[in-house]
Design goal:
By secondary structure, the protein is an alpha/beta fold. Among the domains are: about 1-70 and about 95-115 and about 125-155; about 250-425, 2-Layer Sandwich (hypothetical protein PF0899 fold), CATH 3.30.2320.10. The protein is built from eight helices and twelve strands. The chain has a six-stranded mixed sheet. The protein has a four-stranded mixed sheet with strand order 1-10-11-4. A hairpin with a 2-residue loop joins strand 7 (about 355) and strand 8 (about 360-365). It is elongated and about 170 Å long. The two termini are about 75 Å apart.
Length: about 425
């Protein structure tokens, strides 16, 4: 089927479908079942016709592309080329081009019958110029090959540097921060609370002997206990080598190294604040501090977390300031739905920071998944001895003679939980 006929049929199908649409729109009504089926049929027919038209057009474009790319080449495999693309000399051998040239044909006409006698000597044919003597080949000039246009392409250096990214650090905003000039921080923590207060009747005897109806009027004696707690200043450090040439040739690298080292210090410090084991030079993190409360899993996450608030108030005698939980645990809570399929927490359109039972949610990847911490975070203190600093030196090992330097980043601080019972570790899943 010719291309013109296909286009005429496509036009007819589309016009028929359009007519049904116009009729329904003019009557201000929906399609009838029959009309809907007809429109669907016209559209299916139109799609099929359009595919056929595209295939024919693509085939034609392909043929033209082959003819264009093969210009000057013998693509006939020894046969004569025909059609519009056939041109004198194209696809012929040098011998064929010679004998069929106008100059040679005119020269041969000077001999009887157009043939050169065998007895002829000293003959010289006219000069025949071969326009396509050397094989003609179109070279695709590309911007990739350095031997072609790529040699003239210059790189546009944007100066943009995108680091891999690190986890958000959140505890510094929750915990109390103080300064110290010593390597050892000491504070007093109460261990026993006064709980002996009671109503007292007025004495009715001078010498109380314990007799009937005798009232001594003696006031109850209170008991209170304290302990002295020491927190040693610990050092967190990291270093990285670099060549002086790299620093000289790439001015940006110094800032990148400084930022990377500083970020790594802060990330490690925050991990120590939560998970430090207290062994060796490790800080004693919150979760390894003796005396923090614990809330076991009970029924579901709502019941468990609500009971944790009560425990912290009645046993810890404090009001919490925030939850700290793993992002995956908060995601689980955020996606909870009621029996009607509605999100408890407002779903994706909820605005503002997340809260659980009225207390802010702080997400930290450093908090172990399956447990959360609820607490009064002002009852944990960081004493800053030396803020993070970066030094550069070539005195490490043989760096001086190798033109290398070491970037050393370090910080010194102490950490202590001044009231462990102000924090409660909460199980977020059954069996966690």
């Amino acid at each position: 089927m010719r291309l013109k006929e296909l286009k005429e049929k496509l036009q007819a199908a589309l016009l028929a479908a359009r007519a049904l649409c116009d009729a329904a729109e003019e009557a201000k009504r929906d399609f009838s079942v029959e009309e809907r089926e007809k429109v669907a049929g016209y559209l299916a027919e139109a799609k099929d016709l359009k595919d056929q038209i595209k295939q024919i057009e693509d085939d034609e474009a392909l043929r033209k592309s082959i003819a264009s790319m093969g210009e000057g080449l013998d693509l006939n495999d020894g046969t004569q080329q025909t059609g519009p693309a056939a041109q004198p000399g194209r696809g012929k051998s040098l011998g064929e081009q010679f004998v069929e040239s106008e100059a040679i044909e005119a020269w041969l006409k000077g001999f009887p019958g157009g043939r050169i006698p065998d007895s002829s000597k000293g003959l010289m044919s006219p000069l025949v110029a071969y326009k396509n003597f050397w094989p003609q080949r179109k070279t695709l000039i590309t911007g990739v090959d350095d031997t072609q246009a790529g040699a003239f392409i210059t790189t546009d250096y944007t100066g943009i540097y995108e680091p891999l990214g690190r986890m958000p650090l959140v505890l510094r905003e929750l915990i109390a921060m103080r300064q110290t000039q010593s390597d050892l921080v000491e504070f007093v923590r109460q261990t026993v609370q006064v709980q002996e207060a009671a109503p007292v009747a007025e004495a009715n005897v001078t010498d109380y002997a314990g007799g009937t109806a005798e009232i001594s009027g003696e006031k109850p004696e209170a008991t209170v206990g304290f302990e002295k707690v020491q927190a040693a200043v610990k050092t967190i450090a990291v270093w990285i080598p670099a060549t002086k040439r790299a620093l000289s040739d790439a001015s940006q690298i110094r800032g990148i190294i400084d930022q990377e080292l500083n970020d790594d210090l802060n990330e490690e410090f925050e991990d120590q604040l939560i998970n430090g084991t207290g062994v060796g030079e490790n800080f004693t993190g919150l979760l390894n501090t003796a005396g923090i409360l614990a809330q076991l899993w009970n029924t579901d996450v709502f019941t468990t977390t609500r009971q944790a608030i009560t425990t912290l108030r009645t046993t810890g005698r404090t009001t919490p300031t925030a939850w700290v939980m793993n992002p995956s645990d908060w995601e689980t809570i955020d996606l909870l739905r009621d029996d009607n399929g509605q999100f408890y927490w407002g779903g994706p359109l909820r605005q503002g920071p997340g809260t659980l039972w009225g207390y802010p949610i702080v997400q930290s990847e450093l908090q172990t998944q399956g447990t959360a911490i609820l607490g009064n975070w002002k009852k944990a203190v960081v004493w800053d001895r030396e803020q993070s600093s970066i030094q550069v030196s070539d005195s490490h090992s043989d760096f001086f003679i190798r033109n290398m330097v070491a970037f050393l980043a370090e910080m010194r601080a102490a950490f202590g939980v001044i009231r462990p019972s102000a924090f409660i570790e909460v199980e977020m899943t059954s069996g966690s």
